[in-house]
Amino acid sequence: MAAKNTSSKLDLSRLNDQFQELDFRNPSALPAIPRYALLLAVTVVVLAMLWVFWLNGLNDDLGAAREQEVKLRQDYTAKLQKAVILNDLKDQKKTIAQYVNSLEKQLPGKSEMDALLSDINQAGLERNLQFELFKPGNVVLKEYYAELPIALKITGHYHDIGAFAADVAGFSRIVTLNDLNLALPDKKRPDQLTLTATARTFRYLDPDEIKAQEQAKGHKK
Question: Residues 74-110: pLDDT tens digits?
């Protein structure tokens, strides 16, 4: 027993001697046990740092995944809402297309403008109105249609002028009366009035006009 105690004391003494006056500036010259202990400590520190950085990276990935999840949920909700009302939107599209088609039918083509001008003149004659001025102006080209102003000056009874305005409003083609002015042409005929106005009608653009507009847009760009 005494021999074992003596041996243990010697081992501890040798181990203690190895940790005395260590020079960490030259780790390779350290005794075996301190050298391996230092290597183990450095390894543990490096692994701990790598673990922390890895966890931080995972945390960033988790945050990005959560943001992506929120975005995907929002996209899904929006698309689901659109899918629910898809049939209603299709019905609305059909209704709008029918409405646009009915409006387009109210616009004459370029070849039909002469007939429309004749209809306006005929409407006045049928109401016993006298045309003192019926002068189509210059065509004004818009983006999708052309506008034709017509200077009017007609004389007749009040009710006949009103009926003429109603007839024009009832045309299947769009014709508007603008800048209306009623006046007495002659004090000796108080039952007669003179209407000055600008009638405006609209028509489709013909292919050449559409092409010219597209070319003009191209030059502006």
Answer: 888 888 888 888 888 888 888 887 877 776 666 666 6
Residue ranges per structural domain of the chain: 1-84, 110-211
SS (H, E, C) 59-108: HHHHHHHHHHHHHHHHHHHHHHHHHHCHHHHHHHHHHHHHHHHHHHCCCC
CATH superfamily of 110-211: Ribosomal protein S6/Translation elongation factor EF1B (3.30.70.60)
Q: Is the pTM of this model over 0.85?
A: no
Q: Is 73 exposed, middle or buried (0-12, 13-18, 19+ CB in 10 A)?
A: exposed
What average pLDDT score do residues 123-146 get? Answer: 88
